[in-house]
Amino acid sequence: MELWKSCIFLFLNFCIQSEGIVRTSYGNWNIPKIGDRNIPSFLIDESKNQFLLDGLPFRYISGSIHYFRIPRDRWDERLGKVRALGFNAIQYYIPWNMHELEEGNHDFSGLLDFAEFSMMAFHKYGLWTILRVGPYICGELENGGLPWWLLNKNVTKQRSSDRVFTREVENWFEILLPRVKPLLRKNGGPVLMLQIENEYGSYDACDQQYLRFLRDLTRSLVGDDVLLFTTDGSAESLLKCGTVEGVFPTVDFGPTDDAKEIENNFKLQRKFAPNGPLVNSEYYPGWLVLWGQKKQNLPSPQTIINGSQTMYSLGASFNYYMIHGGTNFGFWNGAETEAPCITSYDYDAPISESGDVTTKYLEIRKWIKGLTDWPTPPLDVPGNSPKGRFGKIKMRLVHSVEKLKTLTSLGDPGDCVETDKPISFETLKHPLGLVAYQAKINSCGNLTIPSFGDFVHVYLNGKYIDTLTRRYYNLTRNSVIIEGCLENEENRLFMLVENQGRKTFETINDRKGILSDVFMNGQAIQFWTQCGIKLPLQEDFYFRKAMRNNYRKNVKSNQKQGVFIGILSVDAPTDTWLDTTGWGKGIAIVNGRNFGRYWPTKGPQMTLYIPAEFLKIGENSVMMVELEGAEEACTSTSSCIADFIDHPVFDFQ
Ligand SMILES: *[C@@H]1O[C@H](CO)[C@@H](O)[C@H](O)[C@H]1NC(C)=O
Ligand SMILES: *[C@@H]1O[C@H](CO)[C@@H](O)[C@H](O)[C@H]1NC(C)=O
Ligand SMILES: *[C@@H]1O[C@H](CO)[C@@H](O)[C@H](O)[C@H]1NC(C)=O
Ligand SMILES: *[C@@H]1O[C@H](CO)[C@@H](O)[C@H](O)[C@H]1NC(C)=O
């Protein structure tokens, strides 16, 4: 806060000295005069309701594309395809949780090097960047982009002016925004404007003090001559809670053939931004998909073009969300109340998950090609990358699920903690994926867990019993009758609990693991061992060991849950898909890299995308951690099939 005040003070001093300052409702502009094209700047010309880029009228057709959902080596390919459409900008979020998985330990390398992403887009393809800094982003990402460890803080309300929350945001923005600053247009870079928060009007807090805090914090770190904006659904109530004085309001809405509807959406924006350009920050050519979803209701390419043409004719700037979706690799998918989001973030976007041009792509490109006054016409249609069908490989069951907790990595005992009562993922400081809970019980009966998230796979003495479910559509199940306890002996109760993604917007206090006592016949079970399962496993070590050993040794016959291993031989690496048809539910790991969850018994996603760069010539290790049982994929006990095919399969009805 002090920093912010001193900035104002310095700035006012400067204003007095300089005649050339330009003030608009959306910022103070330290440029000699509007229209000077020699000084990089991006601002709103309120007299003409338009953007000015380096002093000249500007509008954009952009596409959302998330660097963190694309293999680093494929950024170039995907950005080139965005430019070839005729777009002149990209838009993306910054996911706080991915950059700070461990509190205080920031990662901006490799796949997370957003500055490099924007510089490549700019220098190679002339694409501007519209940047959405959060801190909350939604994006169908785990916890809406907020770090899991915020749940360990005494935050009464996330995304509000709660001082505990805002202090964390200050810490993050003080790390993030200095990295954004050199990329800003005023400093010669490609970043035109910054979105704070995301569809805040849709959140129940409606906390204006929080939005003012975010605005002032951002300005204090990048200067008050940077255009800030908000995005909200086009409804008056949403805009009321999502906008704040001095920050340019934009709206989002999907395709429609009804021009009147589009005009009305922009009229609402105009009500909150009387002097500014028309902007649709999210125009949806596709949509997200949840596990278990049977149908997809998408706009036709004709409607997408029709709505685009209407917006274009109105002089609007607009962004396709998504132009290219990519993949929720690892455990980064979020969840909605009904069900978790699938691993693929293909989104039915114009550029497919594997970077291919689609019919939608070609239609949009054709439309832009026909715009005679558009300054960046499409380029030649780029080719698609080769795809490989490597065929079927044998997967052998090498370890039971119970063994997972000892398999974390080389000589590493894992993150095991012993307590009287079970503890959550957050208390264990194990953010994502799986935690194993183990206790000794003397008798069987009714096992009840009043509170947990999300799925509890229950095993007795190594045998799979059933799965408890917090909520999956209309299914809720928190108890199971367990039978088969050994008399006068201690029995091993083992529970593998799956965090299948924290919710993206309904709640952001979505704790995972066992969140209450666990009862057997009404008695709380005492003394627990909890182990965070570190995936991917140390595959080289573990893989060789497993292949050397007699793989049947550790496995009970007729067991179909556990760790399966196989070898994929590849002559020439290309993109491929692991077809999980016939498997139950689990996680697929190739060459030590977690490609995400599979759940073909629910669908619709049947295949996992494996990009070429993660395969090597020769032998590739394939590991499947199967939680529920690979039924149809197995020809015999402990010999099952994984198939590598050359296209994705989504099983919609
Ligand atoms: C948590 O926050 C509440 C409300 O701000 C406060 O009353 C309480 O003392 C805090 N507890 C801890 C442990 O900091
Ligand atoms: C969009 O579709 C409607 C209904 O078919 C049609 O009347 C209108 O002319 C179309 N608009 C554009 C811009 O193509
Ligand atoms: C749950 O949903 C399924 C599928 O839509 C339906 O068949 C079933 O009747 C529903 N059950 C309840 C209890 O609502
Ligand atoms: C187990 O006990 C709970 C609590 O008494 C009860 O609600 C539940 O129906 C029982 N479960 C089964 C499967 O019988």
TrEMBL record:
One of its GO terms (biological process) is keratan sulfate proteoglycan catabolic process. GO terms for cellular component: extracellular region; lysosome; membrane; vacuole. GO terms for molecular function: beta-galactosidase activity. Transmembrane segments: none annotated. PROSITE patterns: GLYCOSYL_HYDROL_F35 (PS01182). Residues 50-369 form the Glycoside hydrolase 35 catalytic domain. Pfam families: BetaGal_ABD_1 (PF21317), BetaGal_gal-bd (PF21467), Glyco_hydro_35 (PF01301). Residues 1-20 form the signal peptide. Cleaves beta-linked terminal galactosyl residues from gangliosides, glycoproteins, and glycosaminoglycans. SUPFAM superfamilies: (Trans)glycosidases (SSF51445), Galactose-binding domain-like (SSF49785). Its main location: other. It catalyses: Hydrolysis of terminal non-reducing beta-D-galactose residues in beta-D-galactosides. Homodimer. May form higher multimers. Its EC number is 3.2.1.23. Residues 422-531 form the Beta-galactosidase 1-like first all-beta domain. This is Beta-galactosidase. Keywords: Disulfide bond, Glycoprotein, Glycosidase, Hydrolase, Lysosome, Signal. InterPro entries: B-gal_1-like (IPR026283), BetaGal1-like_ABD1 (IPR048912), BetaGal_gal-bd (IPR048913), Galactose-bd-like_sf (IPR008979), GH (IPR017853), Gly_Hdrlase_35_cat (IPR031330), Glyco_hydro_35_CS (IPR019801), Glycoside_Hdrlase_35 (IPR001944). The active site is at E199, E282. The gene is bgal-1. The keyword 4Fe-4S does not apply. Residues 569-620 form the Beta-galactosidase galactose-binding domain. Belongs to the glycosyl hydrolase 35 family. It is found in: Lysosome.
